[in-house]
Amino acid sequence: MSADGAASNAFAPGGATSFAAEADVLRNSLSAVMVEYHEQAKSFATVTAEHARQSQEIAALAGQNIAQSQQMAALTTQNIALSQEMAALTAQNLALSRDVAALAGERDALAMAHGEAAARCAAAEAEREALRSQCSELEKRLRAIETSTSWVATRRLREVSGRHPRLRRVVTMIRARLSGSGRRR
Fold first, then answer.
1. Helical H runs in 147-164?
2. Would you say 161 and 171 are in contact if contact means Cβ atoms under 8 Å apart?
């Protein structure tokens, strides 16, 4: 038999039974494959749906992350601004502290100068009182001299010497020589 004959035998009434058995086997195996394919397709659809749900969840979380990052950036900007403001206030505080320290030093120097001035004032007051006392004593002595008889007696001589300066110089010179010669003895 030729190859064409074998093929024709398969379609022959006697060969049909072997073909039907083969078709049943093929049909059964195709059904199993189709069922498995259908199960895999359902599983794939479930996995795809789960993947889509997770992707949406990830997208939502990414949106939340972006919003939180923006809030964090805004808070960081505020923090930087507050830090700069605090640094400026700290610098002002330091400058004011230095000014206060300088003023305290000036106050101490002024207090010391005031103390010295008060001491000088007290010394001047004491000296003034001593001078007043001495002046008062000299006034008493002057009144005593002016009321003495020798002062009254020499009044005319003083008036003449006041009017004639040459005469006064001569008298002063004679007096100086007399007192100088009296000392040598």
1. 149-153, 155-163
2. yes
Q: 3-state SS of 53-77?
A: HHHHHHHHHHHHHHHHHHHHHHHHH
Question: Is residue 42 a contact partner of residue 50, using CB atoms and an 8 Å limit?
Answer: no
Q: What is the pLDDT of residues 43-93, one digit of tens each?
A: 999 999 999 999 999 999 999 999 999 999 999 999 999 999 999 999 999
The structural domains of the chain, with segments of one domain joined by +, span 7-48, 154-185
Q: Is the pTM of this model over 0.70?
A: no
User: What type of residue sits at position 158?
Assistant: R
Choose among 168, 148, 144, 166: nearest CA to 158: 168
- From CA 64, how far away is CA 54, in angstroms rounded? 15
Give the pLDDT of residue 4: 47
pLDDT of residue 130: 94
